[in-house]
Amino acid sequence: MRLTNLDMDALRSFVAGVDAGSFARAADRLGRSSSAVSAQLKKLEDQTGVALLRRAGRGLSLTDGGEALLSYARRLLSLNDEALSAVRGIELEGWIRLGLQEDFGETVLPHVLGRFARAHPKVKIEGRIARNGELKEKMAAGLLDLALSWDDGTAATAERLATLPLCWLGAAGGQNAWPAHSGEPLPLVALEAPCLLRTLACERLDRQGLAWRIAFVSPSLGGLWAATAAGLGIALRTPVSHPPSVRVLDPARHGLPELPSLGLVLQRAAPDIGPLGEHLAAIIRQALHETLPATYLPPAGDAFQALPG
């Protein structure tokens, strides 16, 4: 059987349209006409031999074949861009500064640093793992170029990469630090203030009329996990990267408030962060797609705006 080479430009338009939620917006970002992007999508369908899109109300959604191709397209484009960056950027020098929420220090940072260093061996990358408040301060002071942080609604230039559920966490051993209906204030394990998730926990408990007390305060995430695992109290966090000594608690069973979700955003120091910054941003997106559950990522299969006409 004669193998077909997928068109990289067409794949880029396909991914850009899904990510932008509109192929019209993707055409504008890519500097192409709507008819050119439409032709590229048709070319991809001819090359794969399957329909990639289907009508969904006034917009379009991905078919099963489209969802499968989207996953491969991201990987193909990432490898293509990494190869070109490595060849073209072999003589590039300088540095770029990246900050990450400490929740992602062990899962995302090694992947990001390794891929970027291979593509740009002469570029120094300065990484900082910190809490939201510190990342926000350093972005404002011009000490970071990019920062992966929780969305507190204050970032001027930010791209939402994922939405993670918040949850109550307790010791995995089953011991309950706060028996429901005991009449005792709920013991809360939290990070030092100011802390976005600490504030959310207190607000939700107050809203439900539950008495609480701060049982343990830690300056770092490691201390929070240790205190929670020891049964000193209950913590509020996302399900990402918590140790096996800690488990997610069912709110209804433990008499705890239901919780909202929290956005994860990539902040930029400026709208134009240059080719090195853009490549680092692309690596971060890919790392999240590879490490986070698909339910936390933007839903690629949902309806999005079609090209005009």
Q: Please count the helical segments.
A: 10
Residue ranges: pLDDT <50 for 5 or more in a row? Answer: none
Q: How are the strands ordered across the major sheet?
A: 4-3-5-12-6
Can you count the beta strands? 12
CATH H-tier superfamily of the largest domain? Periplasmic binding protein-like II
CATH architecture of the largest domain: 3-Layer(aba) Sandwich
- The tally of structural domains comes to 3
What summary fits the major beta sheet? 5 strands, mixed
What gross morphology would you assign?
A: globular
The sequence of SSEs as H and E is HHHEEHEHEHEEEEHEHEEHEH
Specify the structural class: alpha/beta
The termini sit apart by 36 Å
Remind me, CATH topology of the largest domain? D-Maltodextrin-Binding Protein, domain 2
CATH class of the largest domain: Alpha Beta
What percent of residues adopt helix (DSSP H or I)? 40-55%
Overall pLDDT metric: 84
InterPro entries: LTTR, LysR_HTH_N, LysR_subst-bd, WH-like_DNA-bd_sf, WH_DNA-bd_sf
Organism: Plasticicumulans acidivorans
Keywords: DNA-binding, Transcription, Transcription regulation
Protein name: DNA-binding transcriptional LysR family regulator
